[in-house]
Amino acid sequence: MTSASPTLDPANLGAIFKAYDVRGTVPDQMDETLARATGNAFVQVLGADTVVVGHDMRPSSPGMAQAFAEGAATAGADVVMIGLASTDQLYFASGHLGHAGVMFTASHNPAQYNGMKMCRPGAVPVGLDTGLSEIRDVVAAGTTLEAETPGEITSTDVLADYADHLLSLAPVRGRGLKVVVDAGNGMAGLTAPMVFDRIGGVVEMVPLYFELDGTFPNHEANPIEAENLVDLQKAVLAEKADIGLAFDGDADRCFIVDEKGRAVSPSTLTALIAARELARQPGATVIHNLITSRAVPEIVTELGGKPVRTRVGHSFIKATMAETDAVFGGEHSGHFYFRDFWRADSGMLAALHAMAALAETDLPLSELLAEYERYPASGEINSTVADQGAVLARLKEQYAGRDGVEVDELDGLTVTHADWWFNVRASNTEPLLRLNSEGKDDATMAEVRDAVLSTIRSH
């Protein structure tokens, strides 16, 4: 039996084992005892004979990564430690080496958090429905497997191979570019120099906050929030740069800023990358979640591709990519998925596609992207609501049956009209409803947004 620890309490485990990963505060919800027990349970449930382990720059990450490795080795698995890494670097290691993997990171969360992202060999995700609940239950039961022959813990460096693989998928050639990169004191501070050094003849990089620091002294490493892009936008203008790149803490997401300092919608980047992938693989399938811009499926169809709509969340995107053999998938949150990258998401690969497209033209980024930006959008607006179900039912009652309106409940409530659409869905972790809306013009979008918000907030 595992020794008693507050972090191993079933109530705590139920709180931190989320739909797609493990996430909690250190040390009250996550500590090395939990990591060790989870490493052992991971091997028991997945039957892994070798596990790749990586970690981010948070102060608690190295110790928990080592503890996980020890737990896995006790269960008989060999462990390959890749050390400091971005999450997409861990996915690369899982795919390239053919082993199950775990990444210690809390992504964009504040400094007091940490977490684990797990995958099977080939970067296949492990979520609650695909093994994570079983791992949680083994940890809760305190059942430790002690193999007759413990596994061996070794170390390897995959960073150069990772960089080479990304550049083989999206080589950057053409005119010279000046690029400002905001790593947010996260893992892009490690990966970007290795990648950019290989394209130094084309790209001049201006680094911003490259010092690895899990306390995030400059701003949160969460580029979906506008305030965290301000420093990058100023630097792009001051440096007269061609493009700005912002990464989250574990560098699996990327947001871009154009030469005017304007933040670019992830839907626009999704459409651009889709066009590039369809030029390479005509007629291919492209995945988009249901709150990306209407422009994405329109453009995919116009280019001869097949757009497929999914729920929000990486497990749904990756599963649908596997079912349809899609070449690419994009989400509004800045996650971009590539078939040739084991269907995993990579912020750096998305950034390389944006730079490659820009280097191949004489246009500034704002003009290059203009054809992919068609409709004004509200962005995601959160409202605190105690009874989310009642509000969703009220909205359905208001809009279902209206002329020219279609309603579906694939993920929350989506209401679609020829001139506009909106989606309202509940948060998995907080008492929030999230609204996204889009219209044919600013006035239409604002009218729909305000009407829906009025109903949501009247509750």
TrEMBL record:
What GO MF annotations does this protein's record show?
intramolecular phosphotransferase activity; metal ion binding
Q: Does the keyword Translocase apply?
A: no
Tell me one GO biological process term.
carbohydrate metabolic process
A Pfam family reported for this protein in Swiss-Prot or TrEMBL: PGM_PMM_II
Q: Which residues form the Alpha-D-phosphohexomutase C-terminal domain?
A: 380-453
According to the lineage, what is the superkingdom?
Bacteria
Listed cofactors: Mg(2+)
Keyword set for this entry? Answer: Isomerase, Magnesium, Metal-binding, Phosphoprotein
Occurrences of domain Alpha-D-phosphohexomutase alpha/beta/alpha (ranges) = 16-141, 161-261, 271-375
Give the record's family classification.
Answer: Belongs to the phosphohexose mutase family.
Which named protein is this?
A: Phosphomannomutase/phosphoglucomutase
> According to the entry, what is the taxonomic lineage of the organism?
Bacteria, Bacillati, Actinomycetota, Actinomycetes, Propionibacteriales
